[in-house]
Amino acid sequence: MTPRRGRTLTSLRLLAALGGTLWTAATVGGARAPEEALHRWSRRLLKHLGVTADLTGPIPEGAPLWVSNHLSWLDPVVFLALRPSGALAKLEVAGYPLVGAGARLAGLRFVDRDNPFSRATALRALARDLGRGRSFLLFPEGTTTSGQGLAPLREGGLRMAYRLGIPVLPFRLDSPDRHYPWTGDATLMPHLRALAEAGATHVAVTPGPRLHPQDYPDADAFVAALRSHLQGS
Q: What is the CATH number of the domain that holds 157?
């Protein structure tokens, strides 16, 4: 067996084992079991894939909603490893091999980005969850990029936070490793193989300041401030 094939098989076995762990953890425990399951699973997955999240500063408290630019399918895992939280993910994640079913059981919410009804339904669910005091994670670009610039934002969740008076904490993700971004028509398994072959991967996580809607005259100003932090400017 070649070293490359060995590393690929190791990654697949790891993902299968972690998928089973997520499935098991998501189906037992109390009311917070799904979020705690995602949190524990995310920490284990990053460790075993050799991905290190480098925080560039302290994370301000008191923001139920975290938002970030989007580079990779691993971005939610990075943030869910930092705190138990719900997350809004693209519909394709539900079909990922081995982990999709466990993610559904663990409470991950999915949205079809090209379906207006799906987006509206997801926003209503997000508002309900935040109103109940649940922490949540959102990627307003709605797609991954290479990190060079910012894709046009889907502003619905940000404007909803403004209307509801919910503080938001913006983050900026960057990685010095070219294999970390997952863009275009790339599929999961080749990307997982690239991570395994790299051996070590770093992603810088830069928290911005906690932004409160009451400090902005309107939703446009609030969204503009969030966009500025997501761009890293």
A: 3.40.1130
